Structure formats: structure tokens, C-alpha cells
Amino acid sequence: TEEQKDLVTNLDKLTEAEVKIEELEVEAVKAMIESLPEDPTLEDREAIEKAWVAYDALTEEQQESVENIDKLIKVEEKIRVEIVKAMIESLPSDEDMTLEDEGAVEEAREAYDALTEEQKALVSEEHVDKLEAAEERIGELIKVETVKDMIDVLPEADELTLEDEDAVKEARAAYDALTEGQKALVTNLDKLTAAEVKIEELKSEEPIKEEPIENEMEEVEKEIEVEVITADQEEIEVDVITEDQDGLTKTGDSSSIRMYIAIALIAATLILLLIKPKKKHS
Known about the structure:
Elements: H1 2-6, H2 11-34, H3 45-57, H4 60-63, H5 69-89, H6 102-113, H7 117-120, H8 125-152, H9 165-176, H10 180-183, H11 189-205, H12 213-233, E1 236-243, E2 248-254, H13 256-275
Antiparallel strand pairs: 1-2
């Protein structure tokens, strides 16, 4: 209680001890930072992390007493650069890279992009070139894998039908779009080639489709219409009446339709003459 606290006559000693402990905690953090090298390597990563943990455990008042905090910040910036460089260096060469390395390449890119511009300046051009080459290689491998998958899903040659022709053509187009180096990585090209041969065989065996009779009749009717129109346009001379005594022939420029009418009239006249009753003589 407050009354009991008033009876403690050596409180100053406790207070001094607490102040001393706080000072010792600050000194311990300062010593940890001071021991760090100016140019750290990956081997110093754990020591840097411990220094930060100790610093963060201090009160804000204690942290203000850590005069060499700038060194810890600079050392951490350098170690981040070293981590990125190590991630890039661990990537395999183009020849040995597979799609299984895609995750490692992405992590290296993310770590590099997280750096400040000053930190990026500490990453050598050689490291950056290797990272970019690795990303390009992964892109190539993805294209190759896509083509291989398109070929893999094709039916075997003896199971192909003409319905598979479009899929075969698409696989060929995707393959042809690859570079020569990428094409060399397509290990199932034989299946695509066999599929193309089979499709051609199926197309050669397909019966020729005959045009429907209705279509043929339509074509014939069209031809007849053309011939009739042409005939109507031509000038036709038709013998209508022949007079035996004078040897005169009456001709006219009549169309085929008029000719048919004239013939019909002559035929009708002859019929009337034949059926007309003869007069009786008295």
C-alpha cells in the first residue's frame, strides 16, 4: 500500500539499479551493432537479425540512446543486396533450367524488385543479366510445354478422325511459331507428324459428295431460260403464206411466239374448210 511504500527507505537504490539495467541493455545493443562488419556477407545475416530483435525490445527512450543505429540500417541494406545476389547466383544455367525452377526465378525477381534504388545499384549488371536471362528461359520453356501438351492430347494415329483435323493444325501452327532452339526441346514431334499423315490419308479416302438432283435441275432450268431469252432476241424469218401461182412469199420479222400463233391460225382455217358443208346443185 502507499503507507507500506513510505516505510521503504532504500527505494533510491532500486531506482538506480533499474536505470543501470536500462543502460546496460542499451550498451548491449550498441555492442551487437558495433561488432557487425561494414561489408556483411550471408554469414552475418543471423547476427544482423539478432541485433534488430534486441533493438526492437528496447523502449522508445532506450532506442534514442542507441547512437549507432545508422550502422545497423546500412548493414541490413547491404545484407538484403547480398541475399538477392545469392538468390540469383543459385539459379541454374539456361541449359540446366527446367520449369521446376520457375518458382525460384519468381522469388529472385520479387526480392530484387523490393530493393530500393540505392540497393539495386549495388547489384552488379552481371547478376541482373542472369536474372533476366533466367526469366526469358522460363518463358521459352512454358511455350515449349504448351506445344507438347497440345500434341499429347491428340488421339493416337489409329484413333484419329477428320474431326481432329483442326486440333492437329493448331498444334502444327504452335510448333512452327517456336524458335529453332525451342523446337529442339519438343520431344513428341513424331506424334504430330504421324497425326498429319493420318489426316491426309483420311481425306483421300473420303467419298466425293454428289450435288443434289434439285441443284442439277435448277442449273438446267437456268440454262433453258438463257437459251429462250437469247432466241427471243434474235431475228427470225418465218414463211407464213406461200402463193403457188405467183411464187411470192410473205415474210416477216416475227418472234418464235408469233410464229406459233401464225401456225395455229393456219391450222384452224384448214379445219374450218374441211368441216364446212358443200352447197347442193338444183
